[in-house]
Write a structure and sequence with these properties.
The protein has seven helices and four strands; from the N terminus they run ββββααααααα. The protein has 260 residues and is mainly α.
């Protein structure tokens, strides 16, 4: 078959019903060409009548692992986001705000993937990204990002009830900014320490999570979320009580402007 360099001598099992055939590929076992060759081998041996042939080896293990990870991403990622959205909706008693917060978390995650890949490929010269990294990084970053979201927006919600929407957003940001920044820097440094490990997977996880935490700390939580809250206005709290109060607040502001 194309892609097979040689076939080692056949090994028979002790009961005489099984044999093992070890082909040696012409390409490295962890390459895309090896994956293509194994796919062809599976098709050929699977078509042998009554053979019940199975294909194993390092390349197959990597392929099966990648398929399992793809299935987990399709299942776990939506489930995590739905659960987190539900928690935010219950906590904030709103729908628009939690949806925007989830979008900021996803924005931070995809930005982290892009920056990390540039570092892995162009700075560290890693040949690939570990297949488990996307799922692990998302779980870490969503958990950490939502923690910061909850801390910031719950304080903003308290201040909005007291000072109005704009004043509440600015007051909440000022009250929590220093704490979030300090916590983010400590957490990023902790994960960055994984970069000293001798295993590529640990280095990649440490670097990716550290970058994601810094993006969350200095950009998303400090700039994007408050800006969205100010631009959307009290609709940020729809359909909760704070959004309904917007009618009264708007009418009061209009009356004051008319009197002036």
């Amino acid at each position: 078959m194309p892609g097979v360099a040689q076939v080692l001598p056949v090994e028979r099992s002790t009961d005489g019903t099984l044999i093992r055939v070890d082909p040696v590929l012409k390409v490295p076992s962890d390459s895309q060409a090896a994956t293509a060759a194994v796919d062809k081998i599976r098709v050929v041996v699977g078509a042998i009548p009554q053979a019940n042939a199975q294909v194993g080896g390092t390349t197959v293990q990597n392929m099966d692992k990648a398929q399992a990870q793809a299935h987990d991403r399709r299942t776990v990622i939506p489930l995590v986001l739905v659960v987190v959205l539900a928690v935010l909706m219950v906590l904030l008693r709103a729908l628009i705000g939690p949806l925007l917060l989830i979008l900021t978390v996803l924005l931070s995650y995809f930005a982290t993937l892009g920056i990390s890949w540039l570092l892995f490929a162009d700075v560290f010269n890693f040949g690939a990204v570990d297949v488990q990294l996307m799922l692990i990084a998302l779980i870490f970053l969503v958990a950490l990002g939502v923690d910061y979201n909850i801390f910031l927006v719950s304080r903003i919600r308290q201040e909005v009830a007291r000072l109005g929407h704009r004043g509440g957003v600015l007051s909440g940001l000022a009250a929590t900014g220093g704490v979030i920044t300090s916590a983010g820097m400590v957490l990023a440094a902790t994960f960055a320490a994984l970069g000293t490990e001798p295993q590529v997977a640990f280095i990649e996880i440490g670097i990716m999570v550290a970058i994601g935490v810094l993006i969350d700390t200095f950009l998303v939580r400090s700039v994007v979320v408050p800006a969205l809250a100010l631009d959307v206005g009290r609709a940020f709290w729809w359909p909760g009580r704070l959004a309904r109060n917007a009618v009264t607040e708007g009418a009061t502001s209009y009356s004051e402007s008319v009197r002036r």
